[in-house]
Design brief:
single chain, 143 residues, mainly alpha, two-stranded antiparallel sheet, 4 strands
């Protein structure tokens, strides 16, 4: 008998409880997530964690566009996973019930952002590789 486990936030399926617990903790669909990429950067570069919740990151986006993306980059310390989490959170709350009018209708309130995961990930990978190269420069090993 095999038991499948599902993430409470994104419905990812797994079969090993420790792995699914780890996934749920950092899942980009989890509004209370703990970011492993930010933690790595803090441990290896001493860069302080931005300390913002997913909803706080959503707030900096404003009307979106290039300026919204710049604000999101700055607020998230260039962390692509935190940026993705904020964007996913915005899209998950895209269809919210409007209680202002007393009418239970749906509201489309998601601003457009020119976010490309691969581009943001590559920026982060370049920064992390530079940090590792600097750490390893004494030993002559290059990443």
């Amino acid at each position: 008998k095999v038991t499948a486990l599902y993430c409470d936030h994104c419905n990812k399926r797994g079969f090993q409880r420790p792995r699914m617990v780890k996934h749920e903790k950092s899942c980009t669909a989890n509004p209370e997530r703990e970011c492993g990429m930010c933690e790595w950067m803090h441990e290896n570069d001493g860069q302080p964690h931005h300390g913002k919740s997913v909803s706080e990151l959503c707030d900096v986006i404003g009307d979106g566009g290039d300026e919204g993306l710049k604000r999101l980059r700055k607020a998230s310390n260039d962390c692509p996973a935190c940026m993705l989490a904020a964007i996913r959170f915005m899209h998950s709350s895209e269809k919210t019930i409007s209680m202002d009018t007393g009418f239970a209708g749906f509201v489309d309130c998601v601003p457009s952002l020119p976010f490309e995961w691969a581009v943001e990930r590559d920026r982060w990978n370049s920064a992390s590789a530079a940090i590792l190269n600097e750490q390893q420069s004494d030993g002559g090993y290059q990443w």
